[in-house]
Specification:
InterPro entries: AB_hydrolase_1, AB_hydrolase_fold, Epox_hydrolase-like. One of its GO terms (molecular function) is epoxide hydrolase activity. Pfam families: Abhydrolase_1 (PF00561). The protein is globular. Strand 1 and strand 2 form a beta hairpin. By secondary structure, the protein is of the alpha/beta class. It has a domain of 217 residues: Alpha/Beta hydrolase fold, catalytic domain (Rossmann fold).
Length: 370
């Protein structure tokens, strides 16, 4: 009888798990279908309003001058032996000083850290990477090549190639997700973790499933699961959707004095208009559902989480919830009036908060007098 009950229990647990998995993927594919219908309506409306320009866009062949600004650092390349991929990065500051490594988000590239490269090069070896599939870094063609474990290993390999075994790791948006995962899987590598507008992956998963408002704000995650169509929607009308992300009142940079210049915006379009560039960026999203929830989640490094109050894509309540997964010092700063593009929107505030966090617990080691 006991054996029978045990077998029935195992069968019930297995069946419950299968039902949950089926429900999970049904939700994802159902929401994908809904987002596709909305996108098709938008495309149709664009064709009606702009029949001659909807399907016109320009590949920016020549990089704008701001991408060659020597005050930002030197353009370098590294080929990782294990993956065979070549990565582009911009570096400044003396070799041998502590490494501060910057990881950008979507749809960005190294240039999003320009204010921080200038700020921290006096006391650090600062490196802003073009992550796999972005900018001048190699762009693997298969979706499978953008699995989270590969993206995390990329960062570990880059740190080691640069001659370091530890770094101050700074990530924003998707770069924040990778930074969280680096701290989880390679705690010995992360001296301190600094994340901008990116919740711990477990917080995001749990919160989105229980808050329809966040699920709605994250609808692009589901739309981006489709092949080809998202690339088209981001390209029509000469990349109007990409421009709008950074410039519109609802999603763009809030601080008037920090709005992207025409040249800044062209820098982004130069990077994202290249053949295959949008596919590489979108492939990050196309792998995310297959690896969540995480099997490991604890963060042992000290963490600074900076959050723009006016983030149009992520709800602020997720920021405080990150504390549950951190087994070290945790500092959270909500920056009033700031958008999702925090390090570009409020660079002076962001830089000051990072300096303060870095100095905490450093004893007599003085990185900068504020």
């Amino acid at each position: 009888m006991a054996r029978l009950l045990h077998n029935l229990l195992l069968l019930t647990v297995g069946l419950t798990l299968k039902i949950r998995v089926m429900g999970y993927w049904s939700l994802i594919y159902g929401y994908c279908a809904l987002c596709t219908c909305v996108a098709l309506l938008k495309l149709g409306w664009n064709i009606i309003l702009r029949p001659s320009t909807t399907f016109q866009w320009t590949v920016r062949e020549t990089p704008p001058a701001c991408l060659n600004d020597t005050s930002l650092g030197t353009h370098c390349y590294v080929r990782i032996k294990e993956s065979g991929l070549r990565f582009h990065y911009v570096a400044a500051g003396e070799r041998g000083k502590p490494l501060m490594l910057f990881l950008h988000g979507f749809p960005e590239f190294w240039f999003s850290w320009r204010h921080q490269l200038r700020e921290f090069k006096s006391e650090f070896r600062v490196v802003a990477v073009d992550m796999r599939g972005y900018g001048e870094s190699d762009l693997p063609s298969s979706t499978e090549s953008y699995r989270l474990d590969y993206l995390v290993t990329d960062i570990k390999d880059i740190v080691e190639y640069l001659g370091y075994n530890r770094c101050f790791l700074v990530g924003h948006d998707w770069g924040g997700i990778i930074a969280w995962l680096c701290a989880i899987h390679y705690p010995e590598m992360v001296t301190k973790l600094i994340v901008l507008n990116s919740p711990h992956p477990c917080v995001f998963t749990d919160y989105a499933l229980h808050h329809p408002s966040q699920m709605l704000k994250s609808s692009y995650y589901f739309f981006f699961q489709l092949p080809y169509f998202p690339e088209l929607m981001l390209s029509i009308n000469d990349f109007k959707a990409l421009k709008s992300l950074f410039t519109s009142r609802s999603t763009g940079i809030s601080c008037k004095g920090r709005w992207l210049t025409t040249e800044d915006l062209e820098a982004y379009l130069h990077a994202l208009s290249q053949p295959g560039a949008l596919t590489g960026a979108l492939n990050y999203f196309r792998n995310v559902f297959s690896v969540l929830p995480l099997s490991q989640s604890e963060v042992k490094s000290p963490v600074l989480l900076l959050w723009g109050e006016r983030d149009a894509f992520l709800e602020q309540d997720m920021a405080e919830a990150c504390r549950l997964y951190i087994r070290n010092h945790f500092r959270l700063n909500i920056i009033s009036g700031a958008s999702h593009w925090l390090q570009q929107d409020q660079p002076d505030i962001v830089n000051t908060l990072i300096w303060t966090f870095i100095k905490e617990g450093e004893g007599k080691k003085n990185y900068r007098n504020l």
